[in-house]
Amino acid sequence: MKQIKWGIIGCGNVTEMKSGPAFNQIKGSSIVAVMRRDTSKAADYAKRHGIAKWYGDAQELINDDEVNAIYIATPPDTHAYYTIKALQAGKPVYVEKPMAVDLKQAKQMLEASRNYKIPVFVAYYRRALSGFLKVKELIEKQEIGEVKEIRLDLLLAARAEDYYKDNLPWRVIAEKAGGGYFFDLASHQLDWLEFVFGKAEVISSEVKNLSGLYPVEDFVQAKLLYQQKISFSGTWNFCVSNQDIRDRIEIFGSKGKISFSSFEFEPVVLENESGIQTFPFEKPEHVQKQLIQQVVSQLQGNGQCVSTDETAFTTNALMEKIIYNR
Question: Hey, how many other C-beta atoms are within 10 angstroms of the C-beta on 190?
Answer without folding.
Answer: 25
